[in-house]
Structures are given as structure tokens and as C-alpha cells.
């Protein structure tokens, strides 16, 4: 997606060979026009597949997933990274290791929002090692729902996530695939 690649080149900052900062347009300040395009691109790719819900993980997935859900006319469900006293009832949980923070969190969702037999589309801001996506897949399996596909805004193609997910037969659609990066250089997969 050209507009996204331009934003990454103009505003993204690779702080090293592994981590890309995109907080001026994706996950701190949000370029909503760009997110609208992102949502429409995912909606066009994943149309006509009988998808009933869009799911994401707080907090960085919320902006692209919201615009995707809007473009598809579907509800959005946000998986939580921590529980709270008001989050009670029948919860599904799995431990996920965070790439950016180097820590683990309990990915949590109320069972009522993953209805058995439904098909969901998972949207996230980044795909790196695939740990977050695999956490979501474990909960989907436990809930008895099908994951119709995964939409990623920025995939770091040099990390293992893409191949791991493809190996599970998942349709992964990434709008920008970064081949390599360093402080002054970001290169995309053709
Ligand atoms: P994974 O679970 O695939 O290793 O990592 C995915 C999650 O880690 C994403 O949801 C994203 O929030 C975060 N993440 C991974 N790599 C990056 C990165 O280079 N930059 C930023 N800002 N977040 C990242």
C-alpha cells in the first residue's frame, strides 16, 4: 500500500535493526485518513468470506481494526492484555510474550465475544515473531471459532511470524512488508 509505505519512509524511525517506531502516525498519534485507507484495503481483501467479527489486541491494533470493522460493517472485539476487577465471568486466557517489551502478558477475552461457529478476522499493527497472533489463535481454537485471516499493517518480513502463520495454513495479508532496516534505511519486500 503506497500511502502506508510513504508514511513509514517519511515518519518511521528504525531504532535498531529490529524495532520500528511509528508513533507519529500509527500507535501514539494516529493518522486517521491513513487508517481509513488501511481499513478499506483489509475490507477489500477479506470481503465475501463470511466474516462476522473483527478482533484485535489492545492498544496498538485498535485504530486499524476499528477502521476495518467500519469498512466491513462488522463489530470489533478488543482482546485485553490485562484483567481488571470489572472484567469477570467466563474468560479465555493465554500467556503471550511481548516482542517490544520483552515481558509476558495474559491475553484475555470474554468467551461471550467469541461465539462458536463464527468466523473472525484478526487485525494487528505489527507482525514480528507471531507470538501475539499465535496467542489469538489458541483462544480462537478454545472458543471454537474459525480465523478466516490475519491483516497486518506492518510486517517485519525478516522475523519469523509470517512463515510460522503460513505454516499453519493461515491467510496473512500485510500492507507493508519490511525486508530489512537500520537507522537510516528501510527496505520493503517487492
Ligand atoms: P509478535 O507477537 O509478532 O512478536 O509482535 C507483535 C506485537 O509486538 C505487535 O502487536 C506490536 O504491538 C509489537 N511490535 C512488534 N514489533 C514491533 C516494532 O518494530 N515496533 C512497534 N512499535 N511494535 C512492535
Account of the protein in words:
By secondary structure, the chain is of the alpha/beta class. It has helices at residues 2-11, 32-45, 62-72, 131-143, 161-167, and strands spanning 13-14, 20-21, 53-57, 76-79, 91-97, 104-110, 119-127, 146-156, 172-182, 185-188. Helix 2 (32-45) packs across helix 3 (62-72). The longest helix has 14 residues, at 32-45. The radius of gyration is 16 Å and the shape is globular. The structure holds guanosine-5'-monophosphate. The site of guanosine-5'-monophosphate has 19 residues, from strand 2, strand 7 and helix 4. Guanosine-5'-monophosphate binds next to strand 2, strand 7 and helix 4.
Helices and strands, with pairings:
Blueprint (H helix, E strand, L loop, with lengths): L1 H10 L1 E2 L5 E2 L10 H14 L7 E5 L4 H11 L3 E4 L11 E7 L6 E7 L8 E9 L3 H13 L2 E11 L4 H7 L4 E11 L2 E4 L2
Parallel strand pairs: 3-4, 3-7, 7-8, 8-9
Antiparallel strand pairs: 1-2, 5-6, 9-10
Helix pairs in contact: 2-3
Guanosine-5'-monophosphate (5GP) binds next to strand 2, strand 7 and helix 4.
Quick structural gist:
The chain has about 190 residues and is an alpha/beta fold. It has five helices and ten strands, in the order αββαβαββββαβαββ. Guanosine-5'-monophosphate binds next to strand 2, strand 7 and helix 4.
Helix content: 25-40%
SSE string, helices as H and strands as E? HEEHEHEEEEHEHEE
Ligands present: guanosine-5'-monophosphate
Question: What does the radius of gyration come to?
Answer: 16 Å
**How many beta-strand elements?**
10
**Assembly state of the chains shown:** single chain
Order of strands across the main sheet: 4-3-7-8-9-10
Question: Structural class per helix/strand content?
Answer: alpha/beta
Low-pLDDT stretches: none
Distance between the termini: 11 Å
Strand content: 25-35%
Largest sheet: 6 strands, mixed
Q: Helix segment count? A: 5
